[in-house]
Amino acid sequence: MRFYDRKEELDKLQEINSLSQQTARMAVITGRRRIGKTSLVLKAYENEVMLYFFVSRKTEAELCRDFMEEITEKLHLPVLGTPTRFADIFTYLMQLAKTRHIILMIDEFQEFRRVNNSIFSDMQKIWDIHKTDAKINLILCGSIYHLMTELFVDSKEPLYGRQTDFIKVEPFMPSVLKEILADHHPHYTHDDLLALYIATGGVAKYVELLMDSNIHTKDDILQSVVAKNSLFIYEGKSMLIEEFGKDYGRYFDMLTLISTGHNTRSDMETMLQCELSGYLCRLENDYGLIVKNRPMLSASQGKNVRYAINDQFIRLWFRFIYKHNAMIEANAYAQLADVVRRDYPTYSGRALEEYFRCKMREEGKYSQIGSWWDRKGENEIDIIAVDNTSHTITFFEVKRQEQAIDLSILRAKAEKFMETTGRYSKYRKEYKGLSMEDM
Question: What are the pLDDT digits (tens) for 284-300?
């Protein structure tokens, strides 16, 4: 699959490289695993000489040997000695950058913590000593989200505040998914597009795996997710255990509940028989895996909160793969595929709402986008979009099929919203239905 999108990120990386020819730059690039961070940097500097250090789980001495080979090959410099400490290599490069411009990318940077935690404090000292005169473009990439953010946001960490640039690589937006699918399957259906969105969440590597395997249709996409030996079967667990460590069991239980609709704190605490506020806080703020949703215009400290997994693939993985792990262990992949086909219409209806919210955010036409429900759960509006420029508020009902939309019911719910919130009384009100035909 060819390289798609990322124009803003590519422009930013080019700008950083230009600035680094005058003064040292330290760019931090984060984003969930397989989102395309490495491909982004390689694309941005495909016409430049760039040192690429990958931090694998080796000893520090072994890594240094790999890094010195990269320096010799790319910079054509003689190797003097055999350094066994990364600090010595980094010092050498920072000093060298005083005489020539250097681009250095360190991939899976957070893994230095497993290798030798003192590397971070060593880098801080070396950076502070040499950065004024060094012409270096230092790119630090990592896929363990909470570790990468902690390294540069936590004031107790040695590299706190050292970064000059911060780029978070996000999933592909709906327009990019449509472009990719059109290139590979020009006669795709709306169901094909929705299935691609649900299965991949716009994560570049997942999209690439499907497209390069000629998997383009809804049925083929869903089958590939639960097929024996599919990458998707084990992806969620391997990715999240790295994030959570030994406490992953409790987090997995919570994410499974959220994925199946048990999305309030009280509901989860009742089912798991324990207090969860700390876990929920870490899932939201440290790991960035859930979001806290409140009815539009409700108080920020209100208790009417629903939690949602903000990664489409992770949501799918917990709903269909982790929940039915017993089937996988029993080699009952055909039965698992039957479960997916049976539950997909209902599941995809909820995902369609998020697709349209994502599409609206991409288009940038609205000042505020949200949803609303009352405390009793009797009235719920799928999407509310406010345009403060035109003083318009639009209420949307989302259904898979257009004929299932009833705007008279939507109007009645909107009246309840207006009564409850007491806002936007002078705004022009619009009522619209969104179905798969509008994707």
Answer: 988 889 999 999 988 77
Which pLDDT belongs to residue 375? 85
Q: Are 145 and 243 in contact, with CB atoms under 8 Å apart? A: yes
Q: Please tell me the distance from the alpha carbon of residue 54 to that of residue 331, in angstroms, as a whole number.
A: 36
- With H, G, I as helix, E, B as strand and everything else as coil, classify residue 164: coil
Mean of pLDDT values over 45-74: 95
Helices (DSSP H) in 299-371: which residue ranges?
A: 312-316, 325-329, 333-363
Task: Tell me the average pLDDT across 312-324.
Answer: 94
Separation between Cα atoms, residue 311 and residue 32, nearest integer Å: 10
Neighbours of 418 (CB within 10 A): 16
CA–CA distance, 138 with 439 (Å, rounded to integer): 40
pTM of the model: 0.91
Closest CA to 77 of 59, 63, 95: 95
- Which positions ≥6 away from 351 have C-beta within 8 Å? 194, 197, 198, 312, 315
Q: Is the pLDDT of residue 175 over 90?
A: yes
Judged by DSSP in three states, 78 sits in: coil
| Residue whose C-alpha is closest to residue 371's, from 358, 357, 361, 360 | 357
Beta-carbon contacts of 210 under 8 Å, excluding residues fewer than 6 positions away, are 196, 199, 200, 216, 221, 224
